[in-house]
# Entry
Amino acid sequence: DSGVTQTPKHLITATGQRVTLRCSPRSGDLSVYWYQQSLDQGLQFLIHYYNGEERAKGNILERFSAQQFPDLHSELNLSSLELGDSALYFCASSLLSGVTYNEQFFGPGTRLTVL
Amino acid sequence: AQSVSQHNHHVILSEAASLELGCNYSYGGTVNLFWYVQYPGQHLQLLLKYFSGDPLVKGIKGFEAEFIKSKFSFNLRKPSVQWSDTAEYFCAVYNAGNMLTFGGGTRLMVKP
# Structure
């Protein structure tokens, strides 16, 4: 158990819908990262938040957005869902953010299936 | 942009066989390199990491990796695999901004 929790574990929805994935970081960690793991794209970085502020963006679609709340939990919002959005969405957390490496601890993931 | 290539997508071995998984990265500057493992149904876990110093890095569960700068490689090795090593293995490189770039992953199946 990494200490990072994600809900829900599984989510099945239809095309065109909107869903929200939730992540709670390890106690004391200020940074949250979102990754998408799909069969065709592999494991890709989406976005990074540090203490409530967006720090970096990766291959995140405009239909996707995220935020980090004052209690440091984060939500990833996926809208106008398409079949290709079906994937495993991981959240990771680390203590700090910056140029030097901070070990990232990964949650169990949310498996999203779009029908 | 950085990229990471893992050449073997699927590897099947018998128990006690030796393992080597290839990883190449494309980045000319200072690199921080990692191997992560994802056991079936579980989250990603850090196996080992290389920042600097001795290019031969030892990790958990008997795994090691060798950083060869001239070849832009960071191959993972284990002298004798066990059935419990069945998992997916990811090589990753870290860049400024605390962003990990992952390779495509290698699924290892160890037959008992």
